[in-house]
Amino acid sequence: MKMTMIPNSNEARDIAYHFHAYTDARKHEATTPLIIDRAEGAYVYDSNGKRYLEGMAGLWSVAVGFGERRLVQAAARQMERLSFGHNFTSRTHMPAIDLAEKLVEIAPVPMSKVFFTNSGSEANDTAIKMIWYRSNALGQSQRKKLIARERAYHGVTLASGSLTAFSYNHESFDMPIANVLRTGSPHFWRDAEPGESEEDFASRRANELEKLILDEGPETIAAFFGEPVLGAGGVVVPPRTYWEKIQAVLRKYDILLVADEVVCGFGRTGNMFGSQTYDIKPDIMVLSKALSSSYLPISALLVNDKVYQPIADESHRIGTFGHGFTGGAHPVAAAVALENIAVIEDRDLVGNASRVGQYLRDGLQRFSDHPLVGEVRGVGLVAAVELFKQNFPNAAGLKNGELGAKANAYLAEEGVLLRAAVDALTICPPLTITVGDADFLIEKIGKVLNRVTAELA
Ligand code: PLP
């Protein structure tokens, strides 16, 4: 809702001083920013006291819900005991030791070591550096190319952002960097040919991947990066047999597999990790977001022995592994992450994600025949409602993304915060949501679909 801005209001001060992420800066100067003031459970409240269901768990991240006392207390305890500590030059502290051990213990495949970073982008950049370092250590200095997919999101830093597929992450930033190759996404609904089965589409994607590898020279390819379910790309759920076929190609040419579990990790797909849901056997797993429910920034890479051992040898030859961040393995963030995982386990939030997720997705399926909807898709407690303007001649002039933005604005009026991947409404609430919350979400989405439809008719 557009309001008249009061001079020196908090909204005006935001525009005066705050340079926003992922925002059209000029448009922001003429808008009324939404100030989120406090939050509890699955709900956030704006500065006027209006309540919203946080249907995206912030940025796909607040797994245990907002204001969880156990995390608040863990942070306070750790801040009093050891407010900062690092892991350079063999220095360590208990939260880093305990969290590293816990992550290796719950990893779905045998992992050797955990390296801590602060964000998903940093973790993916670190993965790239480790992969290149390893190739050099093995005397394979030509093995440097990285394969990422259309619709991928792996972050925004120079290297991770180069893996990300979106043009607005590259344009005017002089990106992507060299050595990044692109292959097709597993978006069955959008990219399948008429009459093609899910299995045939998966085979086509695997064949395309193999052709790319052969054209480039298998000895030049170091790694393939993939989210088990593409998140920011529009909650793209892989078609049947996709991961099995992709992994067979990677194994054939001895190419490392990095599972970017930044969105899928910690219960989102109905199992602790997306790699379990799709029987993925990664060499590196990248974790962030729900690792600490984003109460504090922390991310982690789990690496197997195939990755770790050559890197360890190379660091010994050079005299150090010359990489690390001041805040990596921050003791307060690590303590919060440990408590967060304990909450997920104690309350069976993975089971809740699976049960309430099924209920929510069943409820959303009723919109699959709606004239404004192309596809409803999802797994566990993550879903998308893909809006489709083709049935409406009046919508022909809308640019891609305008329909999604309009629906989201109306949903906010109704007290629901979602995001849009172009015109796909993405849904990724806290793992704690109830059947009642799911009903509220379904009702409001239905109401907004009808409102937008009435406008376009
Ligand atoms: N990887 C995936 C799958 C993500 O969804 C994101 C963020 O949305 C990132 C990496 C980047 O994480 P960050 O924003 O913490 O750098």
From TrEMBL:
Pfam families noted in UniProt: Aminotran_3
Source organism: Sphingobium cyanobacteriorum
InterPro entries: Aminotrans_3, Aminotrans_3_PPA_site, PyrdxlP-dep_Trfase, PyrdxlP-dep_Trfase_major, PyrdxlP-dep_Trfase_small
A GO MF term: transaminase activity
PANTHER family: ADENOSYLMETHIONINE-8-AMINO-7-OXONONANOATE AMINOTRANSFERASE (PTHR42684:SF3)
Entry annotated with the keyword Signal: no
NCBIfam families assigned: PRK06105.1
This protein's name: Aspartate aminotransferase family protein
Family of this protein: Belongs to the class-III pyridoxal-phosphate-dependent aminotransferase family.
Signal peptide, first to last residue: none
Keywords for this protein: Aminotransferase, Pyridoxal phosphate, Transferase
Keyword Membrane in annotation: no
Needed co-factor(s): pyridoxal 5'-phosphate
